[in-house]
Specification:
- The complex is a heterodimer of chains A (359) and B (401).
- By secondary structure, chain A is mainly alpha-helical.
- Helix content of chain A is 71%, strand content 0%.
- Helix content of chain B is 71%, strand content 1%.
- Chain B is an all-alpha fold and 401 residues long.
- Chain B has a single domain, classed as Orthogonal Bundle (ABC transporter involved in vitamin B12 uptake, BtuC), CATH 1.10.3470.
- A two-stranded antiparallel ribbon of chain B has the order 1-2.
- Classes of the chains: A mainly alpha (359), B mainly alpha (401).
Chain lengths: 359, 401
């Protein structure tokens, strides 16, 4: 076995590829669970964008929606702790009343911000990109401002959800053990992403709602003529999409950080947009893109701490670490430009819809 | 909306109307010019006033959050501290102008894009690449004569931004990739690029922080006050130059025509694709100039990460100024004043400086929801919106350029 591996590694050029594969396999058991954990907020953000863009509304405000929800969830959880709710306990996932209230508050906050986006873009027919920009700027300003004011009183902390512990017997299974662990050793919102992505994929492509949504996103006039209420469907989808942004924010605040920090989304909402585009506006595609983008980040971290040995190591250390950070954005541009398989938005995205008037 | 040659009708002084006005009586001409100016200004003005009002509600409401007794005069105290901080002293006024300088240039970078029907969200990245190029050339020439060092460093900054603006422009022209998405992505790529160079090849030796060499002789001369550098005048100069370019030069006419109606432009023999690439390069150059001004005039070196929000600020400035160079100048001064005075507001009234961002977002909100402003202030003037914007987002889902 070892001799075969050495033989494969020594093939010129192609050997590098095998070495890379070997390196990835060697780091997977340790980095595996981080993948899904880091990808979940991005994938959730993408689902929010999907609900908007599939029904014909551009959403570059995912970042602001996530940030607002993160703030609201941390604040609501903190308020509950301050009012005497117990933290900790033996509940699964370490769930406590403050944490659950925090998640619910985040979902409501996401829907409220989305309602603003819906009102501006659908009723007022503001430029959809300006509406997203307004949400991003206001969310960053308002959450930082309130956080600055609240932190003076050093509010109590509700802690975070705890990951599900996979039994040791299963983790130690050969070959698939690490994989099961990577998927299941997660906190609840992260775990839910798998269900949500599959459900959304089925709903979007196999349900009446999905068919109608896609029709409204591609050709609203035609949809209206067959009796679909374009305005209502768009409103409903945009507002419901806010739930996903809310979960993404709650995941950041209550699953990883445990509190709110200024601008804690640090561009994840924009990576979510990139993942949506790279995944060709499908839930599964966006989820795959989010995993891929996270992998690029995880690779950067492992190369910094445990660089691969040998020839491959020399090459990979030579590559600036910043390349891995920029990779998601670069490949999104490449895909959008159509250099490698083109990704196109739903046809009616960006066009305000005006119902035909009777004369 | 457009004349036979695609001439947009929402410009402040259309040549045809001007010719008529010359024939009319002087008084009538002045009155009509005033009325037109008022129609342009009234909604932005109302939006700013409403944003300040809602901002004061935010200030009052935030007192409830921390459980202090509500002091109804606090917003007034805060705003007064902000305004007197930005305008109340010589140094304050200088600081306002220094703060406004990058906003004018980056605001023009977004505004010129609007005129061509392009939404340049990439001012941030173009700014950063301009800053990087200026910091590199300035650092290399730090011992050369000031005139050589400054002009080459400024030119490098402009060129860095130009290249970085040209990329999304060319991508849109050649492949139809929408500039909103590509510029957002390029903003993040710019952070990676500058972080690589600043913490790697360009890192100043023996410096404990990731930063480039000090620019030395390439520094812009301080003309007045503590930091009133000569870049202020470059920004002031850019306003009439861009105004002339947009309203008096052939290129500007073509840019506006493409923005108002790309099909009409094509039928009139213009080449929209070439113009799109060209306009984005021009926008990038303006943002790059803003970046070089900050490095050479204010900071002296580039750090990684370089904290700036100039890209979003520029969008606010351009929208508040209705993509008009003069409007952009005044919007930039307003925002510059708020930024310059925010520190004093925080000290005197205990209001975090972040309230400026809140007000900025609210201004945009009320500009977007113009109808609220019109209802509240009973404005009857005709709508003078940004017609070019209509072509921006609509092309988002188009399959090709």
């Amino acid at each position: 076995m070892d001799a075969l591996v050495m033989f494969l590694y020594d093939i010129p050029l192609l050997g590098l590829l095998f070495q890379f594969g070997g390196y990835v396999i060697s780091i997977l058991p340790t980095t595996g669970p981080i993948f899904l954990f880091a990808a979940a907020p991005i994938a959730l953000g993408s689902l929010c964008g999907l609900m908007n863009e599939r029904s014909g509304i551009v959403n570059i405000g995912i970042e602001g929606m996530m940030l607002t929800s993160a703030f609201v969830s941390a604040y609501a959880a903190s308020l509950m702790v301050a009012s005497g709710a117990t933290v900790g306990g033996d509940a699964p996932f370490g769930a406590s009343t403050p944490l659950i209230v925090g998640v619910l508050a985040a979902m409501i906050a996401g829907m409220l911000v989305s309602s603003l986006h819906a009102w501006l873009t659908i009723t007022i027919r503001t430029d959809q990109i300006i509406s997203g920009t307004i949400i991003n700027i206001t969310a960053l300003g308002l959450t930082s401002y309130l956080n600055q004011i609240l932190s003076k009183a050093s509010p109590p902390n509700a802690g975070t959800f705890q990951p599900f512990i996979v039994p040791a017997d299963i983790v130690e299974l050969p070959v698939i053990g690490w994989f099961i662990n990577a998927i299941l050793n997660q906190r609840p919102i992260t775990l839910s992403i798998i269900v949500l992505v599959i459900a959304m994929q089925i709903l979007l492509f196999r349900s009446r709602w999905g068919l109608r949504t896609r029709a409204v996103g591609e050709h609203p006039k035609a949809a209206e003529t067959v009796g679909i209420d374009v305005i209502r469907l768009r409103y409903r989808n945009v507002i419901l999409g806010g739930i996903f942004a809310g979960l993404a924010g709650a995941s950041l605040a209550l699953e990883s950080a445990g509190s709110f920090q200024n601008n804690m989304t640090v561009g994840r909402g924009f990576i979510a947009l990139a993942a949506l585009i790279f995944g060709r506006w499908t839930p599964l595609g966006a989820f795959g893109a989010a995993i891929l983008f996270t992998a690029s980040e995880a690779l950067e971290r492992s190369i910094r701490f445990v660089p691969p040995p040998g020839q491959l190591g020399e090459i990979m250390i030579g590559i600036p670490l910043q390349v891995y950070g920029a990779l998601p954005y670069l490949i999104t541009i490449v895909v959008l430009a159509g250099f490698v398989g083109r990704s196109t938005a739903p046809a009616a995205v960006g066009q305000p819809y005006e119902r035909e008037r009777r004369h | 909306m457009t004349g036979p040659a695609g001439e947009p009708t929402n410009q402040p002084v259309p040549p045809a109307e001007e010719a008529e006005a010359v024939e009319a009586a002087d008084g009538a001409r002045a009155a009509s010019a005033l009325r037109r100016a008022w129609a342009l200004v009234v909604v932005p003005l109302g939006a700013v006033i409403l944003a300040m009002l809602v901002g004061s509600i935010v200030i009052l409401a935030s007192q409830v959050f921390i459980g202090v007794e509500i002091d109804p005069t606090l917003p007034l105290v805060a705003y007064w501290a902000m305004i007197s901080g930005g305008l109340g002293s010589f140094n304050g006024i200088v600081e306002t102008m220094v703060q406004a300088t990058p906003l004018v240039l980056a605001g023009l970078a977004v505004g010129v894009g609007f005129k061509a029907g392009l939404f340049n969200i990439g001012a941030q990245g173009q700014f950063l690449m301009g800053a990087l190029a200026a910091a590199y050339v300035g650092g290399q020439l730090r011992d050369q004569p000031a005139l050589v060092a400054v002009s080459l460093a400024v030119a490098a900054g402009a060129f860095g931004g130009l290249v970085y603006g040209f990329i999304p422009g060319a991508l849109k022209a050649l492949t139809g990739a929408h500039e909103v998405v590509t510029t957002i992505m390029l903003n993040f790529v710019a952070i990676s690029i500058s972080s690589y160079f600043v913490s790697g090849p360009l890192r100043a030796p023996r410096s404990p922080f990731a930063q480039t060499l000090d620019v030395g002789n390439a520094e812009l001369i301080v003309l007045f006050g503590r930091n009133g550098h000569v870049g202020i005048f470059f920004a002031l100069l850019a306003v009439p130059i861009i105004w002339w370019l947009l309203w008096r030069a052939k290129l500007g006419f073509e840019i506006r025509t493409v923005g108002a109606n790309p099909d009409a432009a094509r039928f009139a023999g213009m080449r929209p694709r070439r113009l799109i690439a060209l306009t984005m390069a021009l926008c990038g150059m303006l943002a790059g100039l803003a970046g070089s001004g900050e490095i050479l005039g204010r900071v002296g070196h580039l750090t990684a990460p370089y904290a700036t929000n100039v890209g979003f600020d520029a969008i606010t400035v351009a929208l508040l100024g209705r993509a008009n160079p003069v409007g952009i100048l005044f919007s930039a001064l307003l925002l510059g004043m708020m930024k310059a005075g925010a520190g004093q507001m925080q000290i005197q009234a205990g209001i975090p400086v972040e309230i400026v961002d809140v007000i900025q977002g609210l201004i945009l909100l009320f500009l977007a929801a113009e109808i609220i402003v019109r209802r509240l202030f009973r404005i009857r003037e005709a709508r003078v919106g940004l017609e070019e914007l209509a072509t921006v987002t609509r092309s988002y889902g188009e399959r090709s350029a």
